[in-house]
């Protein structure tokens, strides 16, 4: 429950610091006194939009802080999961809005994200304002309500897990089908490319080798003539170089006894002779090997033309790149076969998951329909007490394709009058009927799943007199399961509160300031009397106020 509320520098609030109590409390005050301002501040704790315009003029930030008693709420899992400290039965939640428009959130003085803040406060407090009556038109609200009554969280969790798996499998299948369709559209072309590259039987170094061979074949006569002439000069001609070199060696050896350097020079010429002789042998052999071969020249030209054509076609410049492309194309063709196999596997997995999903969805739907029966009877009883004895209600279920919440389409059919056919509640119910229906729904669901604190913001709109008294009794009953705070303009409801708070404005030096104060018994009589008679207090109004309070606490 909400134990303490502190607001500073928010709108018309300079500083508000108030203790709150368990049970049923009412909040009253003139229109424009600041009740909506307090709700706006509280909405920040629920993750509402931060707006720097809400900061009181002249201040750099506003602060809203609430202390909750969380005894028995089993929030340990939340604190452990979010790695937050909480070693007591109290939890302090704070949000600050800065002049820049940014905000900061804290749980027990630890900075947290807005998502963490929302996740916690949604389990602690519910602010029900008039616009929330529109939730009756929203399928997700009706489904969540029925699930709360059915206490089927374990089934819904199982279904959600299956649904996530179902969606993932379906998405993977759709993407794979698109890939296969796209790949098969170019399969013939890929096959042609692969055949052409495979038949080319390329090797990484052959282009360089063929280009070198082509040069040799194209100049074979020139090369052969040069080699023969060189061989002739070295060893074949009359004055060949090797013969002259042998003569030089002999001359030097002949002078070795009389000229000691001659032997060294002769030895050096011997080494040169041996090397030149080897070179001459190689030249002779190459001269015999080099030959003009038209057939080989044609083959080399054809082979190089094939390589150049493939390189140009595939926009590459080397055989290595062609080989890499060939491997990639072969992989892509191979993947078509494996994709077909994977598609069959996905079909089997998706079929199995879909069957399990629909089976679990049916169980989920059964639990909701059973809950709808109990809830409908409960609502009829409560609405009879609220002055609507002829109410007919029905939760209409329409099967639909799987969604994250199940396969149920749910709407609420309603009729408040005898012999009037039930229609969608949004089409037939008046404002006062909607208000009572929503109160009855809140009261019924709170019985199944109590929420620590519920704040009703003028839920009594469109009702008065005896019906207001009945609504007050309903909220009083709800307060046995949790803290109920009602913002009201009706004295019948205000009087039923265990505690009453008054919101009022005062003109002060810094301008108009909103305040809130817990009323004493005497102050309650005066406040309720004003609610009965207006600005001018009459003895009759005071007497009626006293009577209302006395009857409310007997």
Commentary on this structure:
This protein has 554 residues and is an alpha/beta fold. The protein contains 18 helices and 15 strands. The strands form three sheets. The protein has a six-stranded antiparallel sheet, covered by helices on one side. Strands 8-12-13-3-14-15 form a six-stranded mixed sheet. Strands 9-10-11 form a three-stranded antiparallel sheet. Strand 10 and strand 11 form a beta hairpin. The radius of gyration is 48 Å and the shape is elongated. It starts with a strand and ends with a helix. The model has no long low-confidence stretch (mean pLDDT 88).
State the main characteristics:
554 residues; alpha/beta; six-stranded mixed beta sheet
Number of strands: 15
Structural class: alpha/beta
Strand order of the largest sheet: 2-1-4-5-6-7
How many helical elements? 18
Q: Roughly how many Å apart are the termini? A: 25 Å
Q: Which shape, going by the Cα principal axes? A: elongated
Beta content comes to 15-25%
Radius of gyration: 48 Å
Mean pLDDT: 88
Given as residue ranges, the uncertain stretches (5+ residues, pLDDT < 50) are: none
The helicity comes to 55-70%
Largest sheet: 6 strands, antiparallel
Q: Can you describe this structure in just a few lines?
A:
This protein has 554 residues and is an alpha/beta fold. Helices cover 57% and strands 19% of the residues.
Topology:
Blueprint (H helix, E strand, L loop, with lengths): L1 E9 L2 E7 L4 E5 L6 H11 L15 E9 L6 H6 L8 E9 L4 E5 L2 E3 L1 H8 L3 E4 L10 H12 L2 H33 L1 H14 L5 H13 L1 H17 L4 H14 L5 H30 L4 H20 L5 H67 L6 E12 L2 E10 L7 E2 H4 L2 H18 L4 E5 L7 H14 L4 E5 L3 H6 L2 E10 L2 E8 L2 H13 L5 H14 L2
Parallel strand pairs: 3-13, 3-14, 8-12, 12-13
Antiparallel strand pairs: 1-2, 1-4, 4-5, 5-6, 6-7, 9-10, 10-11, 14-15
